[in-house]
Description:
Elements: E1 19-21, E2 24-26, H1 29-45, E3 49-50, E4 56-58, H2 59-66, H3 71-75, E5 79-82, E6 85-89, H4 94-103, E7 113-122, E8 134-143, H5 148-164, E9 171-176, H6 183-194, H7 203-211, H8 222-228, H9 240-255, E10 261-262, E11 276-281, E12 290-296, H10 300-303, E13 312-318, H11 319-328, E14 341-345, H12 348-363, E15 368-370, H13 377-386, E16 391-395, H14 397-402, E17 404-409, E18 415-419, H15 423-427
Parallel strand pairs: 3-7, 9-10, 14-15, 14-16
Antiparallel strand pairs: 1-2, 4-6, 5-6, 7-8, 8-13, 9-11, 11-12, 12-13, 16-17, 17-18
Bound molecules: histidyl-adenosine monophosphate.
Amino acid sequence: MSKTFQNIPGTFDILPEAFTSDGTTVESSASWHYVEERIREVMAHYRFHEIRTPIFEPTELIARGVGELTDIVSKEMFAFERGDTHYVLRPELTAPAIRAYLQHHLAQKGGIQKLYYMGPCFRAEKPQKGRYRQFHQFGVEIIGAIDARADAETVAVLIQIYKSFGLKDLVLKINSLGDEKCRPAYKTALQEYFEPLASKLSETSRKRLKTNPLRILDTKIEDEQELIQGAPRLVDFIDDASREHYEDVKGHLTALEIPFVEDPFLVRGLDYYTRTAYELDSPHLGAQSTLAGGGRYDLLAQELGSSEAIPAVGFAAGIERLFLALDGEGIALPDAEQTDVYIIALGDGAEKWAFKTANEWRVAGLRVAFDLQGRSMKAQMRDANRHGASKVVIVGDDELTSGKAIVRQMETGDQETAPFDGLLALIR
Ligand code: HAM
């Protein structure tokens, strides 16, 4: 037998029907469409406009944007090169969005840009439930706005997307990371706190202690999480302007009746954040409890070559984790796209009629299916059920002779006979 192939672990195929493999359920393409359409609808209500950027980007953009010392850049990049140029499959979309904003001079279009995106991202992480190597993000970026209402607006659209699916068990955690001026003092305070505890830290955290002590706060190791509880808190180091901004963000969230908890040790896994940082958690995700994360990143544009500071704020969310949360809260999604009518044809003449008529009805805007294998009445009826057809039209030799077809309502089982030229009107 010749060799067959499998998808790469941590990636998955999306098929017309949902399936489960190795304990992971992959929803049907119909469920994906439903979820994506709803996200787009809410984005439109909040007046975010879609941006689509390439799947691969220059390595340097991601390294500079996300931060050399982050896990994403130091361990998880899918990188390749051609000639002298180094590329990566995009691990996220914020740096690409800012690249596009600068490249296309979107600032000159006047006003603030409210962008959204949806698409695959790639991180070479150890695959597990809710953590994949190719996963799908949707997210927003408000670029050019310093106002705390922009921060709150990104949270508002995020929460509304989840609520629109009927999700209830959502926990929003927020923090302020201050800016580059207060960060050094906080870094020193963290180093002073953790140095005497170094023997209790993991090797990774010991390394981070020297290079990037804020990352220690991001640990998933339980013992370390306990140590963190006694660590100095960033909010005690932030400057007055950042503090005022933080108070404003919280005030705007309260005005929108969005509940939140303050988490003084929330730092996020990417290096570009300043001031606001937030995460949305669901208790239904297990170890990967984060549905979405975001915050403000007022210095990123300059890091990526802009001559002036461009304040910006946004979030990104994982679609696979949204599915897990929906499943956890018992919210069912439509998992098949409905067929309006299924034509059962018996005999050569009827098959020819069905083939032509199906096309006419499709052109007229109906979702029409029929059998391509010349099977029995019973087999075709089973197929009609599998398609979830709401109506079935049955045509055999007798019907061809009389010019009338049988129309069956699948839900009630009621049947009637109608002339061919009146069928379309009846089916609609
Ligand atoms: P992030 O926290 O790295 O942030 O990712 C955002 C979301 O993407 C996560 O909360 C999670 O739902 C999903 N996600 C991340 N990695 C994986 C994975 N391996 N498998 C499945 N889902 C995953 C960002 O990417 C920032 N760009 C967010 C942002 C936008 N900040 C400002 N603007």
